[in-house]
Amino acid sequence: MTEEGRYDVIVVGGGVAGSLVARHLGDQGRRVLVLEAGARAGDQEQGHREAGERFLAASAKVPGSPYSPHEAIPWPEVSDLTGVDSGGYRSEGYLVQRGTLPYASGYVRVNGGTGNIWTGLTPRMLPEDFDTEAFGYGRSWPLTYADLEPYYRAAEFAIGVSADVDEQRGAVGLPFPEGYVFPMRGLPPSRVDTVMAARLDGRRVKEPGVEELVELRVAGTPQGRNGVPNPRYGGGAGFEPVGAYGRPEPGSRCGGSASCIPHCPSHAKYTPLKTQARWAPSVTLQDRAVVSLILVDPAGRATGVEYLTYPQTGGVQQSRQAGTVRRTVHADVVVLAAHAIENAKLLLLSGIGNRSGQVGRNLMDHPVLLTWGLLPEQVGPYRGPGSTSGLEGFRAGPARRLRAPFRIEIGNWGWVWAKGSVDTDVVELMRASGPHRPGLRGRELRQAVADRVGRQFTLQFEMEQSADPANRVTLDPRHRDLLGLPRPVVTYGLSTHVKEGIAAAKAVSDQIFTLLGAEDHTSFEAANWPGRFEHRGRTYGYRGAGHAAGTHIMGAGPTTSVVDQWQRCWDHPGLYAVGCGSMPSVATSNPTLTMAALALRSAERIEADLAERDRPITVTANRAFGAAS
Amino acid sequence: MEEFLGLSSRLTGFDIDELREDDLAPELLGVVLEQVGAETYRRLAAAPDARDEELVAVAEALIRLWYTGSWQGSAGGGGPFLVSPRAYAGALVWRAIGGRAPGTSAPGFGSWAEPAEAAGAGAGRRR
Fold it and tell me: Cα–Cα distance between A67 and A51 in angstroms, integer?
């Protein structure tokens, strides 16, 4: 075992939350060590190029396709799951799934984390989202929208958000300080968006069991990707977009490559690598460092971590025999920022922080109902960002009492999330439907493909899933990875509240399709829908949005929650667990921005802790000792 | 090669000139010959509209290859595979809708707001 130097702060994980915390503390001159399980590209440009090449060469363009998993650090991929015709699902791969329904999302363990492959949507949570107990479900936050609001602005700066503040105020109902504008103007809506807006704006739809009608309005979604800077930003200071490798690049704009998940060729989308490029020299990243234990002293204070290394090439087994893999490192503050599931795994593995019994529990995601069809006209799908607009009217209000609220994303990429690549459309059209009926050929086929693919759209209903202690991550010593660390065991399901939300969403979808004059092609065949269930006599399927949350839940006290409002572990001074795992509720907004805001807020708190440690009071104490001697 | 282009044009609905644009034919023909053998390929080329079950399957595999850049998977096991990034970028499905394969080009800021290009049969030229 090797002992290394001492740091002020160890950050476990170089994703969105970890990179932002490290940046803030490095800027204060703190010595920060970031331990990243994945490999860091030696040359950033080469790393970016190779990620793009792997994506383009991949047969299945799944979210993890730009990266080759190292055998030492497996990760879950959406393709680990398949539906079974007789009902239920089959799962293979890193996560051991034991729920009635599957946890249907993946993540990646590479430098920059899942923040490399995110879509880049950055809506804020609504003020009422912080207190769902008022609607009779879920868990409320120990802080309010007003508490977090300044950090939302800080996160919008750090990520570089393009959005229209008036639209966010008017169509979404968010409060902003007087005069605030986003760093960059809202991105142009897609053709799909404008075609829909023309037919939907101002129309009203009815939900079963809800008296009040909901008025539809297509509204732009805030985006963590570069657009046109707003000269009014920062009181007239303007904003300089951040381009490749963290460089200021005033002209950087989304180029419309339509591959945000999983790879933005033009560097317009925010990734944590941009933040890392701006770290102060006092921040060090150690890659291929897999934390295996959080160290605490007898008083319970976190003192450091133990981690395992693995060779860049060559087998894990050989390197274990060489005996060079286990190291320890110490710091005053340890920050877990490894992903909701990995953070829970580390706490469970270390046997700490669990006075409440809530570690690993309350696993949440956004279960997503997809409905898809054909518009009457050509709209040119598969262009631009994955989603540029949404319908926001089902996120708020008293209907939350009856069913989970949802945000409707308008999908710009055809049916890819629902049905997989366009290959399926081509195959359906050309395939013989019987031995004497060959499928389409020649001009007929070409026309049919254009007609089928060119009119595609998808509605993506992101459902709020509330905290349920039964949805959880545990460890089972019988299931281990090659480094000998237990693999996460996931037990997951959907509550009646969520299922009611999905049913309501489908009813809303039906009315929207009618208003659009769209042909509905939604159907949930077993094989393609591992997340599939019956509710009130109808069959529904869901996908996972990749928004794991809740596993080290934040709350008002140590007996019911794992972390406090600063994401400090109640049980262990000096130990923070940051990320979506802290969220008491996931609301209906894509959670990255909220995670970033929370991380920046925690970074301030950590700096305050360290400043407290460094205060001259120590000197006074020494003097006192001196006087006594 | 001319024979392959003729066969491909007949099956896909794209003119021979259109199929030449990305110079994918040699690579795709190589895949076909490797996967189904020269003899079967010859039979298909001689009778592109044959109702013979085996030849229909090969014709469909060839169409899929041109339209998506992927081979559907071999009889000896193994699922569909992408032939190459070039074949992905040049896949005809994108030309059929007047678009580009995701991740292969950057048509420019705001390009996604424009109306879709007139797509469909006969409108195969790229922007």
Answer: 6
Nearest to B70 among A381, A385, A423 (CB): A423
* Placement of tokens 């032939």 in the chain: B83
User: B115 and A380 in contact by Cβ < 8 A?
Assistant: yes
Task: Tell me the shortest Cα–Cα distance from A584 to chain B, in angstroms.
Answer: 36
pLDDT of B127 > 50? The answer is no
Identify whether the C-beta of residue B86 lies closer than 8 Å to the C-beta of residue A419. Answer: no
- Residue A620 scores a pLDDT above 60: no
At residue A576, φ and ψ (nearest 5 deg) are -115, 145
Distance from C-alpha of A304 to C-alpha of A349, rounded to nearest angstrom: 15
Element (H, E) at B88: helix B85-89
Nearest CA in chain A to B119: A450
pLDDT tens across A238-289, in order? 999 999 999 999 999 999 999 999 999 999 999 999 999 999 999 999 999 9
Q: Which CATH class is domain A1-183+222-365+546-629?
A: alpha beta
Question: Is residue A496 pLDDT above 80, yes or no?
Answer: yes
Structure tokens at A79: 């393709």
Token reading at A304: 């450091």
Q: Could you tell me where the DSSP H helices lie in A1-42?
A: 16-27
Cβ contact, residue pair B96, A57, below 8 Å: no
Half-sphere exposure of B110 (CA within 13 A, CB side): 6
Mean pLDDT of chain A: 94
Model confidence at A208: pLDDT above 60: yes
Q: Which residue has the higher pLDDT, A139 or A5?
A: A139
* Residue A475 backbone phi and psi in degrees, to 5: -120, 145
Q: Chain A residue with minimal CA distance to B70?
A: A59
Task: Name the closest residue on chain B to residue A430, using Cα atoms.
Answer: B60
Cα distance between residue B83 and residue B72, in whole Å: 10
* Nearest CB to B93; choose among A383, A451, A453: A453
Cα A359 from chain centre: 19
Question: Is there a contact between B115 and A427 if contact means CB atoms under 8 Å apart?
Answer: no
Residue A627 identity (one-letter amino acid): A
**Dihedrals phi, psi of A269, to nearest 5 degrees:** -75, 140
What percentage of chain A reaches a pLDDT higher than 90?
91
Taking CA atoms, what residue in A is nearest to B88? A56
**Residue A53, pLDDT score:** 97
Q: What is the mean pLDDT of residues A508-537?
A: 97
Q: Which residue of B has its CA nearest to A188?
A: B110
What mean pLDDT comes out for the span A561-571?
98
Residues in chain A: 629
The alpha-carbon gap from A535 to the nearest alpha carbon of chain B, in Å, equals 34
What is the distance in angstroms between the Cα of B82 and the nearest Cα belonging to chain A? 5
- B53, B72, B93: best mutation site toward chain A, by most A Cβ within 10 Å? B93
| CA distance to partner chain B, nearest, from residue A437 (Å) | 8
A385–B112 C-beta distance less than 8 A: yes
Give the end-to-end CA distance of chain B in Å, rounded to a whole number.
27
Which residue in A57, A382, A413 is closest to B85 by CB distance? A57
Nearest CA-CA distance, residue B65 and chain A, Å = 10
Q: Do B64 and A59 touch (CB under 8 A)?
A: no
* Pair of tokens at residue A340: 């909701």
Cβ atoms of A177 and A149 closer than 8 Å? yes
Contact B110 A188 (CB under 8 A): yes
Q: Which residues contact A422 (CB under 8 A, 6 or more apart)?
A: A382, A414, A415, A416, A453, B68, B93
Contact A539, A506 (CB under 8 A): no
What is the distance of C-alpha A578 from the center of its chain?
A: 13
Test A413 with B102 for CB contact under 8 angstroms.
yes
Q: Which residue has the higher pLDDT, A626 or A394?
A: A394
User: ∠ CA A62-B32-B57 to the nearest 5 degrees?
Assistant: 85
Bridge partner list, A306: A293, A328
